């Protein structure tokens, strides 16, 4: 057990004023592995003041120099990739190979993409007799979840820093150690003091103080729709910019012409990866009635192969929520074909890879985000029915379409109310805009669109 007493504020690790602490638990064996400070409103205020004081200098730093700092940050993260992967595995529970391939590698790629974007971005443009300046929004309050702990930090901090903003980060209480590693990398790179600050703490205390702080210009939040709604209201009340990356209930639409076995295998892998704790996971598989039974058998067999491969959920609370969802699905008439609500192991917050068949669109498991290794398989009659089901939730974050011909899948994807669609298993692109339609959020992350979130325009007329 390691006890840390510092928050990273104004270029140094400083003892928190608050004496409260957070225990970090390894979800695979339920042991306490570390203790970190739980910042209070006073600590948040100190961090925001540091970010405010650093803003004029960082905003005036030439973009090329900001880009060079981000390239150094990418290198500092790359040098720590093993430590990052081991830390994510310890506090989130994901298998080490997944932590290496995704939790460590993706943020390194995203940091690199912002080093390049900052170097090449037009921070000034001509519009007729005007020169339009793209200036940093100001002090950013970033609030992140635990499911992709480093990715979600980098997806906010890298574009914010590239834009010339300064940052105060409140990471998830479950995964503060990964956030500390990020702050160490920032420190190593020698960013000016106060440009990036880390306050570990609880959402309703430190998170809320950050979102409500009058000197925060933009709140960027990723997490649940319930908390996002409150943060949006607070930001709206103060006329602050806000970016919200919220939940999802994405549809994996397998059209009749698709390679069914391939589509089902990739679809099951997508849901089981990170133990289903992925906001963009394709948790609803939509299959034509003529191929439904075959698809259910394939999905059940594919899910069973993950039984010994997936990690635990992040916490006992998440495990209990997910088990509750499975029980509710069964109570509402779904048919269990793999997994189930029972705990598969005596120790650790594990849930079995679960497949529910005969799920109908109005069931709770087809409407609410479960955030666990649970796939619902739904039956559709024809393409219009599939579209109605796919679009029939309050969410619109991601999705997938499979068809024999790409053009057929694209035609369907154009009619989906969602921010991302993978065509016949298209690969993740760290430069493509990521974000939600409908209640999945406001704003976009990643790539040039993610950078634009942290800029505001000023027009000079000549
Ligand atoms: P959450 O409560 O929304 O947490 C996200 C972040 O917001 C965390 O840093 C959290 O701090 C903070 N927070 C909580 N209450 C706050 C408040 N009143 N003001 C400001 N910040 C606040 O999500 P969660 O508890 O980690 O997970 C619950 C559910 O959210 C999941 O089951 C899943 O459905 C959804 N979720 C979605 C995503 C996504 O990527 N879209 C990610 C994670 C979770 P604490 O860590 O202290 O709570
Ligand atoms: Mg929470």
From TrEMBL:
<dbReference type="InterPro" id="IPR016161">
    <property type="entry name" value="Ald_DH/histidinol_DH"/>
</dbReference>
<feature type="active site">
    <location>
        <position position="245"/>
    </location>
</feature>
<dbReference type="InterPro" id="IPR015590">
    <property type="entry name" value="Aldehyde_DH_dom"/>
</dbReference>
<keyword id="KW-0560">Oxidoreductase</keyword>
<dbReference type="InterPro" id="IPR016162">
    <property type="entry name" value="Ald_DH_N"/>
</dbReference>
<dbReference type="InterPro" id="IPR029510">
    <property type="entry name" value="Ald_DH_CS_GLU"/>
</dbReference>
<dbReference type="InterPro" id="IPR016163">
    <property type="entry name" value="Ald_DH_C"/>
</dbReference>
<comment type="similarity">
    <text>Belongs to the aldehyde dehydrogenase family.</text>
</comment>
<protein>
    <submittedName>
        <fullName>Aldehyde dehydrogenase family protein</fullName>
    </submittedName>
</protein>
<feature type="domain" description="Aldehyde dehydrogenase">
    <location>
        <begin position="13"/>
        <end position="459"/>
    </location>
</feature>
<dbReference type="Pfam" id="PF00171">
    <property type="entry name" value="Aldedh"/>
</dbReference>
